[in-house]
DNA sequence: AACAGGATGTC
DNA sequence: GACATCCTGTT
């Protein structure tokens, strides 16, 4: 796993999330009740016969691991979001290694304010981000016996977040027309209209409002917003004057070629791929 | 407004 | 060849 919160960070994060003043952290998502079930008490362990307390099956273990993974992904996502917000507010970069003394002070003041710590930033004056990163937890404690560890843990979270960003760069979460879909990743790579339509159909999360499957197995799809689909096609092909009249003419060219046809019962804005087996057979 | 398909031009 | 554009006519 590329990113694992230490137990300490985890607990720290949980405490932060359960602090109700911190609407800043986790405002939309429910706090994911991340506290692991307490270990079975010693007497339970002693007095429960092995047969009755059947060990978790492999599937149960897998399910649990997947749950944990999901929770972890969620927490990491929230942390990254929070880091982003703070960076914008403070006008600093996410990676502490790039901070100068002023940035460090900004970050300290922010952290103090956010978690209601007393003023400890004075103890960290004249330190750059690089200095901060080279310090051990003991060094932090030396400067602030009470809150050094908290600051250390928090800095570690930021460093981890920066490392994460480095590892998996700009994941675009655009909900509407994610630009990379419409513009192709490879400049001017020729694309066929039927391929483009399939691309849109593959991403219902982004495009189901303008085009969606009616029957995926049979390859029947419906264009819900003809103008929108035409606009997307026009962007991809660099044809600003594209409209549904012209797009549909191109679809009709497919009739003769046996790529797309009208379904048995012809319906408005509904078409059907002739051989949907080819791509559904390759699994999804 | 969508549909069908011929004609013609473009890359 | 695969459209893009324009057009006539139909549903």
From TrEMBL:
Residues 78-162 form the PNT domain. It comes from Acanthochromis polyacanthus. GO terms for cellular component: nucleus. It holds the Pfam family Ets. The keyword Nucleus applies. One of its GO terms (biological process) is negative regulation of transcription by RNA polymerase II. Residues 33-59 are annotated as: Disordered. It comes from the Eukaryota. PANTHER family: ETS, SAM POINTED DOMAIN-CONTAINING ETS TRANSCRIPTION FACTOR. One of its GO terms (molecular function) is DNA-binding transcription factor activity, RNA polymerase II-specific. Keywords: Activator, DNA-binding, Nucleus, Transcription, Transcription regulation. Residues 191-274 form the ETS domain. This is SAM pointed domain-containing Ets transcription factor. May function as an androgen-independent transactivator of the prostate-specific antigen (PSA) promoter. Binds to 5'-GGAT-3' DNA sequences. May play a role in the regulation of the prostate gland and/or prostate cancer development. Acts as a transcriptional activator for SERPINB5 promoter. Interacts with the DNA-binding domain of the androgen receptor. Interacts with NKX3-1.
